[in-house]
């Protein structure tokens, strides 16, 4: 028997994304966001949902671009900090000792020290109540060379992305490999 938890924002995995944007003066800004993910294969797109009250919201509206930075577990302290204060009040990257890099594809910065970044051009917005969903076309995915295998695939054990559990307010690392997608199910299909 399952226990009803009610209508809540609990879904797994909930990503830990660091959203990069430039403000009106051209200053790099980052914020932590958990509401987002892949939303289309062709064209390749990612969505994020932000409250209008965030500094990043207006930056994305103005610049029509954002980056999604994937922090590694060893930089969890910075990811958490980026969600605690507003970029209009302080330079979060400088305070965290991290480096903003100007994208050559979109009007948004990315974080040099994070192992993976996704550069997005804003193509749609959707008002959904308390949040606005931004849909960005992925123009490029950049991954540290040390975190890519010989076939050009990111190595999760090197990237070390995190998930967020909103109901307990904690970050978790990824676990062990479970099995091969599009393979394990063949044992049932072939019965």
UniProtKB/TrEMBL annotation:
One of its GO terms (molecular function) is FMN binding. InterPro entries: Flavin_Rdtase-like_dom, Flavoredoxin, Split_barrel_FMN-bd. Residues 9-150 form the Flavin reductase like domain. Keywords: Flavoprotein. Its cofactor is FMN. Belongs to the flavoredoxin family. This is NADH-FMN oxidoreductase RutF, flavin reductase (DIM6/NTAB) family.
């Amino acid at each position: 028997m399952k226990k009803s938890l009610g209508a809540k924002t609990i879904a797994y995995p909930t990503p830990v994304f660091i959203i990069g944007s430039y403000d009106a003066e051209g200053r790099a800004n980052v914020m932590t966001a958990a509401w987002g993910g892949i939303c289309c294969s062709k064209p390749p797109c990612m969505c994020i949902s932000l409250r209008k009250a965030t500094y990043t919201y207006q930056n994305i509206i103005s610049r029509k671009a954002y980056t999604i930075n994937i922090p590694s577990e060893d930089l969890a302290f910075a990811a958490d900090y980026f969600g605690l204060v507003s970029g209009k009040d302080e330079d979060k990257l400088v305070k965290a000792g991290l480096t903003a890099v100007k994208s050559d594809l979109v009007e948004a910065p990315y974080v040099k020290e994070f192992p993976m970044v996704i550069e997005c051009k804003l193509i749609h917005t959707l008002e959904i109540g308390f949040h606005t969903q931004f849909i960005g076309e992925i123009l490029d995915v950049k991954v540290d060379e040390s975190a890519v295998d010989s076939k050009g695939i990111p190595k999760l054990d090197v990237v070390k992305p995190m998930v967020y559990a909103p109901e307990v307010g904690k970050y978790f690392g990824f676990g062990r490999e479970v099995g091969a997608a599009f393979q394990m199910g063949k044992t049932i299909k072939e019965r």
